[in-house]
Structures are given as C-alpha cells and as structure tokens.
Amino acid sequence: METDFPLRKIIHVDMDAFYASVEQLDHPELKGLPIAVGGGEKRGVVAAASYEARKFGVRSAMNGNLAKKKCPQLIFVKPRFVRYKEISLKIRAIFYEYTDLVEPLSLDEAYLDVTVNKKGNPSATLVAGEIRRRIHQELGLTASAGISINKFIAKVASDYNKPNGQKTVNPEEVHSFLENLDIRKFYGVGKVTAEKMYLLGIFTGKDLKEKTMEFLEDNFGKSGSFYYQVVRGIHKSPVRPNRIQKSVAAEHTFDENLSSEIFMLERLEHIAQEVGKRLKKSGLAGKTITLKIKYSDFTLQTRSRTLPYFVADPFVILDTIKELLYQEKMENSVRLLGISLSNLNTGDKKVDVPEEAVSIQLRFEF
Predict the structure, then answer these.
(1) How many domains does the chain contain in total?
(2) Mean pLDDT, to the nearest integer, of 115-130?
(3) Is 319 annotated to bind ligand?
(4) What is the CATH number of the domain that holds 252?
(5) Where does Mg(2+) bind (predicted)?
(6) pLDDT, tens digit, for every residue of 208-226?
(7) CA distance 221 to 334
(8) Is the confidence at residue 179, as pLDDT, over 90?
(9) Is 109 tagged catalytic?
(10) Are 197 and 219 part of one and the same domain?
(11) Coil, strand, or helix at residue 300?
(12) Domain span holding position 50
C-alpha cells in the first residue's frame, strides 16, 4: 500500500463480553449460563451480556424486560464497577509492558501503538498474540485484537474473529479488506446511517469508495469526508495516551416512575454527591452543569447552565440542578435522572506520538 503519510503498527484490544466474563470468572457457577449484567428484569438496562445470552439476541443497552422475553432463562447480575476497574487496571499494566502509547477507550478496550515497542518485536501480530495470551493466563479472561496500519482499521479488524481471536490487515491488504467489508461493519456507521446508505445504493466498502467526496458531504455532512478517507485506508489520528476527559457524570434509573419534583430532588441529591466524589477523585471541576431527564415514554431531555467559574462541590452543583429542574414543567413522569459536568479544567494539552514511532518504511512486517 503506497501512501503519502507514515504507516503505524496499531493494535486494538477488545475484551470479550468483559463485565459478564468477570462475573463468570468470580462466580464459577455462572459459567456457561446466559447472564446479563444490569439493573434487572423490571426496569433495568443490560450493560453487558455473556455470549451464551447473545445467542438468544440479548444485547447491551437492551431493556431488561425485552431481554428476558428473548431468553427466559436469562440470569441478571448486578454490576460491580469497582471490580471491573480493578481488573481493567491490571490489563493496562500488561499493555504498558509493551508500549507507553496506550489510549484507553473504556474499561474493556484500548489502542496500542507498537511501531516501536519495549520488547523490540517487529511483528505487531506476534505482540497482539502475546498480550492476549498473558491476559488469559494471568487474569483468566479472553480478549480479541485487530492489527493494522491505523486505528480505524484495527478497530474494525478486532471484531472480525470475536470472541478470543485476532485479525491482521497488512498494508497490502487494506484496500481489498475495506472494499469487501459490509458497510454495517464500518466503525462509525450506525443503524440509521446504514439504512440511509442502503437507500443510496451503498452496501459495501467498494460501493462507498465509488462515491465522490461531494456526494458524501451532501448526504452525510461533515461525516462524509470521514467516510471518504477511511474507505481509502486513510485515518491519521495517532494513538493518544492520557486522553483528555471531557465530562464527569452519574445517573440513575428508578424502579418506579417519578412524577413529583420533591422525590426527584431527593434522588438528585444522591446523584450530585456521586458526581462530587468522582470529581474529587479525578481532581477535576467544571463550568457547565447538565441535568439529564428520561421520561417514562423514553424521550430524553437535557437542560444545561454554564457558570462563570469552575465548581466541584456537590451542594453547589445541586443548587444549579434545582434551578434546571424547575426551569419548566415536566412533560411526563420520569424514569431516569442524571447529572453531568463538562467544560472541565483539563486544559488542552495532548500527548502526541513521538516522531521516531512513525517515521518508518511504507512496507514493513506485521
């Protein structure tokens, strides 16, 4: 693959059904059973589903009641995020033995730039395999990985041989890989966008590649130029360690709908305390306070206010939330409330990939 930009060796590691797998690891009696980590059948939302549950069509973000209908034998398990974070940190410790260029996306996935790595291994494929083996041997969990020249292709590839597999897309294979890819497999193309692409005759990467930049921008706005670039294997975003946090938030889904602002304020006080704890732990403060409201009919509303100063105190946050709550009359009873702080005091410093990590030959061993 000839390019006018440097190629990198990028690995995207994605843990397999992470939350559910941790529960099955800690509770052997759950192994082999369909489980859903989430709030429960009555009101909760599935945060993660084991592969045994996925066979029945149970997916993350699915309503618990619907999940139970799809899989009557489904077992609900309450999430333990402290435990998930504990294991996530151990996984990252393994990553850092190979490279300092690690960009976590969440507790269960991350990008690694191993163009120049601490092991001196020229093969990103072998590095990915070694990392996956160590995760399994040391932590008892499985991970999948995608390996390629940039973050976009690596992320798409990591889903190719799930679970517990990996896929390498070598430089000379990039174009054919993307052209033959179902458009639904393109990272960043959701259900709505995919349906719109179908109507425009775009079903594969090859179909997408045949469209001009002007056509894609006319139909998809700013995303059009992104689609135009990535289908040609162009995605210049480097792996960025120390990703800048953009917001701190907490929310709660209630067992019964709330129709009284007094009851809502009681819940919001607890949520504000949780946000305050998270801000303190991260050493952050923010200026923009947002109240999130999800009504019983699942419609979502947000109300925000930006202050002239940074705040982190939960009582100060709650004062603003009270104003936002009474800003206008509720449209319906409420099933979820959330509070977030954005416009944080994180500054704008970013850590870029060092020059020596990207100044390499165009054709090299993967």
Answers:
(1) 3
(2) 96
(3) no
(4) 3.30.1490.100
(5) 14, 108
(6) 999 999 999 999 998 899 9
(7) 34
(8) yes
(9) yes
(10) yes
(11) strand
(12) 18-81
